Amino acid sequence: MIQLYFVLAFLFLGLSVGSLLERLHYRRIRRRELGFATQPVVTFGMFPADKTIVHAELALGSVVISVDYFKRFAASLKKLFGGEIHSYSSLLDRARREALLRLKESCADADLILNLRFETSTISNGNNSNIGSVEVLAFATAVWYQTCDQRPEVLAG
After folding, report:
1. Domain containing 8 — which CATH number?
2. What value does the CA radius of gyration of the chain take, rounded to a whole number of Å?
3. Residue 124 is part of which domain span?
4. Residue 154 DSSP SS3
């Protein structure tokens, strides 16, 4: 009977600490997102016609986030009944948002970020192919430009 109490106590401890850490991470993400709210990121490769590209480079942002034991336990219970595994949904949401923030931080002074893409992969912990962690890679093209009216008149005759 005492062993059952230990198991329940560790599950409660895992839930409490995991939830606290997740809330703190979301709070940091929201605070950092406010700093980049005006930097445009688009998923297509079209460029404004009235702009001239001065510089372009590949921008990357990558993150690996691990699953806590309570989420792993809850997911294994959910696998018995089927349906969406909400504990992993928040994990992937945090990972995507963090990867995008790291991408924006790598080119913070870019005028535009074009053609944004995400790649995800799972890192198994070796036990029945359960997810140990998830890696998200965000990549795009960072562009610095000048408007046409700022361009020097080279063809003026």
Report:
1. 3.30.110.70
2. 22
3. 2-150
4. coil
The single-letter code of the amino acid at 30 is: R
Residue with tokens 């336990």: 73
Amino acid letter, 34: L
Which residue reads 């790649």 in tokens? 119
Domain count, the chain: 1
Are the C-beta atoms of residues 56 and 141 closer than 8 Å to each other?
yes
pLDDT at 70 over 80: no
SS3 category, 64:
strand
Q: Say how many Å lie between the first and final Cα of the chain, rounded.
A: 93
Separation between Cα atoms, residue 129 and residue 140, nearest integer Å: 31
Rounded Cα distance between 86 and 7, Å, is: 23
Look at residue 84 in the predicted model and tell me its pLDDT.
Answer: 80
Q: Which tens digits make up the pLDDT trace of 1-22?
A: 788 888 888 878 878 888 888 8
Sequence-separated (6 or more) residues with CB below 8 Å from residue 78: 85, 86, 87
pTM listed for this prediction: 0.79
Distance in angstroms (rounded) separating the CA atoms of residues 114 and 12: 44
